[in-house]
């Protein structure tokens, strides 16, 4: 049986931190991979022995200063004696495999630079506390919902995917500031769809995701909010599936719920509202391609949340009133929610169109109709916004 199959994990690694201070650690190999591992081990206070006929100058300097001990020859059985931990980083898979097998026999945990997936231990990734190392080089696409804009509102899984990405395809909405934290070699592709402005055709985005993944890349498609709420995420998933490219979906905090939420507006409230509906306003009522039954929504008692509906707001408000919603129904418009420019404008359904002009409201904005809006206005100040003063909504 090959030793590799012994370690090939069928379950995720269990994350722990090793306290290596004063403990013997053996690093086999003298290249930059070995150096990278060694500096971390020295930071942890480990007593490092490097075994390698030659070493890169940085390792030589550490040996010269007495920070580590260098055994200037090839690896030999017995080299792991007394070690608590081992690193196999020789750039020679056959040697790494021998080291890993010896380590396994001696019950010494070992990382393998040539094949992290076949190691008994894998190093933690800097940006993803409990991230797992990727195995193999087969490319794939991760559809990540980034939340409405505040970088703190992406999920842990989303952050992990970003920290492992080779290519990140971004939109103009969502947590842009996270891009600053990407590794320098990560390719960023701008696939923004500006409202009635420049945009990359969806077919081109789909083709791009597929071609990068086929080239073996880990591709993150970073979207605002949730990928499947008016995000065309399913089109991208289907394009990948048709091309036999694996896809992972990482849900996100949708602006439909999260943006009213940070402005102190709950979409439901016990004893007041037992339903909410999220509608796209990108087509006005009566448009031949509209799939929305505005008369049903007008008759609804509960909360109506409208996305992509700044320009169409007057027509939508008129339709809702025509079909039964009260003209004085309270409305809140939350603009650029969870960003430094967040503001909330309050009005009524009848006055919505005029208010948007008076207040010069531009997208992105979410508007909300319903009793829950009144509730928020009465609860002053909005409780536990969670974003600090920078994001406190303004009246
Ligand atoms: N998938 C996204 C929605 C994409 S449609 C999500 O789940 O949030 C784009 C619309 O989302 C915008 O027109 C606007 O109505 C809303 N939106 C997205 N981010 C927003 C933000 N930070 N503040 C207010 N509205 C936002």
Task: Write a concise synopsis of the structure shown.
By secondary structure, the protein is of the alpha/beta class.
Any key phrases for this structure?
Cobalt-precorrin-4 Transmethylase, domain 1; 3 domains; 395 residues; single chain; binds S-adenosyl-L-homocysteine; Methyltransferase, Cobalt-precorrin-4 Transmethylase, Domain 2; disordered N terminus; elongated; Rossmann fold; alpha/beta; five-stranded parallel beta sheet
Strands of the biggest beta sheet: in what spatial order? 3-2-1-4-5
Large-scale geometry: elongated
- How many strands? 15
- Total domain modules: 3
Would you give the CATH topology of the largest domain? Methyltransferase, Cobalt-precorrin-4 Transmethylase, Domain 2
Number of helices: 12
- Uncertain regions: pLDDT < 50 for 5+ in a row? 1-5, 126-135, 383-395
**What CATH first level of the largest domain would be assigned?**
Alpha Beta
Radius of gyration: 28 Å
Architecture overview:
By secondary structure, the chain is an alpha/beta fold. The protein folds into 3 domains: about 5-120, NAD(P)-binding Rossmann-like Domain (Rossmann fold, 3-Layer(aba) Sandwich), CATH 3.40.50.720; about 135-255, Tetrapyrrole methylase, N-terminal domain (Cobalt-precorrin-4 Transmethylase, domain 1, 3-Layer(aba) Sandwich), CATH 3.40.1010; about 255-380, Methyltransferase, Cobalt-precorrin-4 Transmethylase, Domain 2, CATH 3.30.950. The chain has helices at about 5, 30-45, 55-65, 95-105, 155-165, 200-215, 235-240, 255-260, 295-300, 315-320, 350-360, 370-380, and strands spanning about 25-30, 45-50, 70, 85-90, 110, 140-145, 165-170, 185-190, 220-225, 245-250, 275-280, 305, 330-335, 345-350, 365-370. The strands form 3 sheets. Strands 3-2-1-4-5 form a 5-stranded parallel β-sheet, with helices on both faces. Strands 8-7-9-6-10 form a 5-stranded parallel β-sheet, sandwiched between helices. Strands 11-12-15-13-14 form a 5-stranded mixed β-sheet, with helices on both faces. A hairpin with a 7-residue loop joins strand 13 (about 330-335) and strand 14. Helix 6 crosses helix 7 (about 235-240) and helix 10 (about 315-320) packs antiparallel against helix 11. The radius of gyration is 28 Å and the shape is elongated. It binds S-adenosyl-L-homocysteine.
């Amino acid at each position: 049986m090959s030793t590799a199959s012994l370690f090939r994990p069928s379950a995720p690694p269990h994350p722990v931190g090793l306290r290596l201070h004063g403990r013997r650690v053996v690093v086999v190999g003298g290249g930059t991979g070995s150096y990278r591992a060694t500096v971390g081990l020295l930071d942890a206070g480990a007593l490092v022995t490097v075994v390698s006929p030659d070493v890169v100058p940085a390792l030589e300097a550490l040996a010269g200063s007495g920070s580590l001990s260098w055994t200037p020859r090839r690896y030999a059985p017995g080299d792991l004696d007394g070690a608590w931990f081992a690193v196999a980083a020789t750039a020679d898979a056959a040697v790494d495999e021998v080291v890993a097998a010896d380590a396994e026999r001696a019950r010494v945990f070992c990382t393998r630079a040539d094949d992290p997936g076949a190691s008994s231990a894998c190093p933690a990734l800097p940006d993803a506390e409990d991230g797992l190392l990727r195995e193999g080089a087969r490319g794939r696409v991760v559809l990540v919902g980034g939340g409405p804009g505040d970088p703190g509102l992406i999920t842990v899984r989303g952050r992990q995917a970003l920290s492992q990405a080779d290519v990140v395809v971004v939109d103009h909405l969502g947590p842009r500031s996270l891009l600053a934290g990407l590794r320098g070699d990560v390719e960023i592709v701008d696939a923004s769809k500006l409202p009635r402005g420049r945009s990359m055709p969806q077919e081109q985005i789909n083709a791009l995701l597929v071609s990068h993944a086929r080239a073996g890349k880990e591709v993150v498609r970073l979207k605002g909010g949730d990928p499947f709420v008016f995000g065309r995420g399913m089109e991208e998933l289907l394009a990948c599936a048709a091309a036999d490219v694996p896809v992972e979906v990482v849900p996100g905090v949708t602006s439909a719920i999260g943006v009213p939420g940070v402005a102190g507006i709950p979409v439901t409230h016990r004893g007041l509202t037992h339903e909410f509906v999220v509608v796209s306003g990108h087509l006005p009522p009566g448009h031949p391609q509209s799939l929305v039954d505005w008369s049903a929504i007008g008759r609804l008692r509960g909360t109506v949340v409208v996305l992509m509906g700044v320009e169409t707001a007057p027509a939508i408000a008129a339709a809702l009133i025509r079909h039964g919603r009260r003209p004085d129904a309270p409305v809140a418009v939350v603009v650029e929610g969870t960003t430094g420019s967040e503001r909330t404008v309050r009005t009524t359904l009848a006055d919505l169109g005029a208010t948007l002009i008076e207040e010069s409201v531009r997208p992105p904005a979410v508007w909300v109709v319903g009793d829950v809006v009144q509730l928020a206005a009465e609860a002053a100040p909005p409780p536990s916004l969670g974003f600090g003063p920078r994001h406190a909504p303004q009246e």
